[in-house]
């Protein structure tokens, strides 16, 4: 049984989850796109790297070009990054294989995926070769010490493939970007909403403050289960796994499933009245103050309180 990772590269930048896909494939990876040599130098889990230079992301054309060299591989794994999610179904169609999307683990006969709002894990099995996408930030990756072998390959790029045309590539807005890729996050927990308060309005205010600071808004499972914000904002092992440069936790006690989804943030600030809670214990800076009061003061100083008027309709990006 042979495994290989396929990682799309843009201008030498690896997508989130590239090292995890490489590790899941046993160190074997095919980098496709522009600046693949630079991408290969950034990998920490690779033992065997093949590089294919392709111009302009065109998932249909790329799939047709890569399929011939991937037919002999039993399991093809891609990151569940934006480009990976675009390329994987087209590659599966070109190879005439099933696609197991959103996997948290890939094995010889299939993959483990999460469904139903990340609440249920399913073990999907295949009788033959398949393609899978691996959710970034879930599996982790152990760096290898040896230098990988790197080989540049040329492929025939077919003409006339019907494909999506990229008009422009826009940088994501912090308030709507995928939490898994957010560099700065303001997270809210149950301690951010006082008894009897409007939780949805409080989280609208948190989102407005985060936006004013160039950050994204996240939440604990308690907050999403209560309906205060959408499940796409949930951080944890049952939600989105993040790895930000800065995480500011407002009223977050630090349950194990939440901390398990934090990855390795460079800096953590905890705002909580409990100085002994797990989140404050792991923080670089702990502010033992009332989280709702501090949020309200931040909103006042930033001039965003009006943007989070509780009477406004709630929409989740």
TrEMBL record:
GO terms for biological process: fatty acid beta-oxidation using acyl-CoA dehydrogenase. It holds the Pfam family ETF. Its cofactor is FAD. It comes from the Bacteria. Residues 5-168 form the Electron transfer flavoprotein alpha/beta-subunit N-terminal domain. GO terms for molecular function: electron transfer activity; flavin adenine dinucleotide binding. Heterodimer of an alpha and a beta subunit. The electron transfer flavoprotein serves as a specific electron acceptor for other dehydrogenases. It transfers the electrons to the main respiratory chain via ETF-ubiquinone oxidoreductase (ETF dehydrogenase). Belongs to the ETF alpha-subunit/FixB family. This is Electron transfer flavoprotein alpha subunit. It comes from Carbonactinospora thermoautotrophica.
